[in-house]
Prior knowledge:
Strand content of chain B: 15-25%
Strand content of chain A: 5-15%
CATH architecture of chain B: 3-Layer(aba) Sandwich
CATH topology of chain B: Rossmann fold
Structural class of chain B: alpha/beta
Largest sheet of chain A: 6 strands, parallel
Number of helices of chain B: 12
CATH topology of the largest domain in chain A: Rossmann fold
Structural class of chain A: alpha/beta
CATH class of the largest domain in chain A: Alpha Beta
Distance between the termini of chain B: 66 Å
Shape of chain B: globular
Order of helices and strands of chain B: HHHEHEHEHHEEEHHEHEHHE
Radius of gyration of chain A: 19 Å
Strand order of the largest sheet of chain B: 2-1-3-4-8-7-9
Number of domains of chain A: 2
Helix content of chain A: 40-55%
CATH superfamily of chain B: Thiamin diphosphate (ThDP)-binding fold, Pyr/PP domains
CATH superfamily of the largest domain in chain A: Thiamin diphosphate (ThDP)-binding fold, Pyr/PP domains
Shape of chain A: globular
CATH architecture of the largest domain in chain A: 3-Layer(aba) Sandwich
Oligomer: heterodimer
Order of helices and strands of chain A: HEHEHEHEHEHEHEHEHE
Amino acid sequence: MKGNEALAEAAIRAGCDAYFGYPITPQSEVLEYLAREAHARTGMVVLQAESEIAAINMIYGAAGTGKKVMTSSSSPGISLMQEGISYIACAELPCLIVNVVRAGPGLGTIQPSQSDYFQAVKGGGHGDYKLIVLAPSTVQEMVDHVKLAFELAFKWRNPVMILTDGALGQMMEKVELFPHTARTNEIYDWATVGKPKTRERTIITSLNIQPEKMQEVNLHLQRKYKEIEKEEIRYEAIDCEDADLILVAFGLVARICKKAADLAKRKGNQSCSV
Amino acid sequence: MLEEEKHYEDVIEQESICISDNVVYDKPETLTSTPMHYCPGCGHGVAHRLIAEVIAELDIQDKTIGVAPVGCAVFAYNYFNIDMSEAAHGRASAVATGIKRVLPDKYVFSYQGDGDLAAIGTGETIHTCNRGENILIIFINNGIYGMTGGQMAPTSLAGMKTTTTPFGRDVGEAGYPLKITELIAQLPGVYYCTRVAVNTPNNVRRAKKAIYNGFKYQELKKGLSFVEIVTNCPSNWKMTPVESNKWLEENMLPFYQLGDLKVPQKEN
Lengths: 274, 268
């Protein structure tokens, strides 16, 4: 399957409730595939928004109801979403954002790149916040990371980004798909679903006008990020124990590095690892 | 105690005023007891109350989700005793879309000012209306940016003095006041579009009816309802509440004329 389509299929299978997105190369197949497949199969909501700004705010609204929601875009579109992502991070809402990276800055090119690395891992928008970022290196991981992303998003109530690129998005590889998970109607106590008489109202907001409250929220977020760093770091180390030279890479480049280390070993350099 | 007060004391005792049988007008349970931060004489408080009354009367508190804007009503969620989401500036209708699409059987409304809805959020407003999202948009138009301190709004009248048009809005320079409600009424996805005010008791009653209609049409899944409420801003218009209501009558209402812009066609 093509990377973008495999990711979209994985979203349906993961029991995703809604997708809001806007076309941009090289990720439009995600929206196209979902528009074709999703609603008829699971009743999943798929809506083409009028802009990435609208799409991420639809995500904010829908995520606030406790539903499993996602969007996807590529670099310039992800830049437009940053304001909304900042609100989502502060309001501590779970959601999945997929960035099929293309090269920039500016309008750049539609060719693949890893140029949004810092934007993805350091926050991206205004304020001190962080995303959980997963970087697949194969189409298989494009699939597996969707399921994992939703699990992490709800475990930590934090937006999760799948940071992939145009090459993986467009590449065709064999994949093994996981079985369908049914969509759930779970009601979370933090979600805005309509206030019964039996509970206090819920409010989804990122506004903390009192400086003490703002500080408290920021300290809480930083503690959460530290905990996530402690518990959720994922990497693969190949023969690193005795290496003199370790190549560190993510995404597609990790596969190139694996090959480079293999070649180095074949040429007699035993101490190069990934 | 004044003589006059003594007189009333004789007629009716305080205890009997406070007994629940005698209460003829009360705060609906859909409003919280938080004192509102709005300036004296501002229309927001009345608009909030009308929305809260309609939600209470329709008995849909447990099915209603509101979306607050950025602007003076940024704290609207402190006053409505319902589930609410606070949106980024201009994005309330997109947030409302997201909520409604995943919870189609709930009542969703956004509450937005003129800067939020008709300047920074114009794109979201037009497209939400054009999709005919089955929600209610309440649009508060006071012709000025209130929260940031009286700057020009897209709806500021020609010649109107604001802190960013200190010599009056020069339409050649700053553009024309935007009648966005007239634009919205043209869109096929819009089922009901009306303009009301809350400056007189009669207008308050009409405004309540419009809000009621908006929720009712949503229940019937008719598409988008859009209710513009023309209001005053005594603080930033630099007037007393009474003066501001007079100014509204004499200046705002001739330009933003009250009445229905789109009403449901009779179905055969």
